[in-house]
């Protein structure tokens, strides 16, 4: 049951992000188009990273042994990509932010909510990365919570940023 809710939520997020990015916001230049592609690819990688929480949650809660074993194997292989995904996503987002600040900022204004939620997302992403590295070096209860809360706040803010109309 939880599994289906999770699947449906993920699919809805994916479809709605595609709609927002490619249907509802037309672009006016090739550079902005590249900036949108950077953002689209980066949020896919971030979605996968945020999903680790739900995978670990299902592993913890599940009573069926075969589910625990199969998911644990999958989680282990996904965690191999966790840090590369974070770093590649971050590089793409930096290009995205730079392109948008350069090409769109002057048109919609640098204090437009789309811009401000963008700056905020970069800030939370930085904190998430920092917390991830701390946790990677030496995990503790506090470091686990810190990385998790940072990641969730980051996801909330970038979703607001994504859906904010311009
Ligand atoms: C300095 C930071 C940022 C600035 C100035 C910024 C600015 C913008 C602007 C102006 C758009 C609208 C582009 C258009 O549709 O023509 C946009 C779209 C988008 N941004 Fe950002 N952004 C920043 C950071 C981020 C971050 C950190 C994320 C995600 C982690 C992100 C994800 C997205 C996504 C997915 C879209 C596509 C939605 C749409 O087309 O409206 N952005 N951004
Ligand atoms: C886009 C950035 C990132 C996001 C959205 C993200 C998100 C997450 C989430 C949601 C979890 C599951 C947390 C839990 O259930 O307690 C997690 C686990 C973890 N993350 Fe990240 N993370 C990011 C970047 C990083 C980075 C850069 C590192 C390390 C250099 C890192 C290291 C870890 C480690 C070690 C775990 C624990 C895995 C385990 O328990 O086996 N993360 N991350």
Automatic annotation (TrEMBL):
This is Ferric oxidoreductase domain-containing protein. The chain crosses the membrane at residues 7-25, 37-60, 81-104, 116-134, 146-164. Keywords: Membrane, Transmembrane, Transmembrane helix. It comes from Anoxybacteroides voinovskiense.
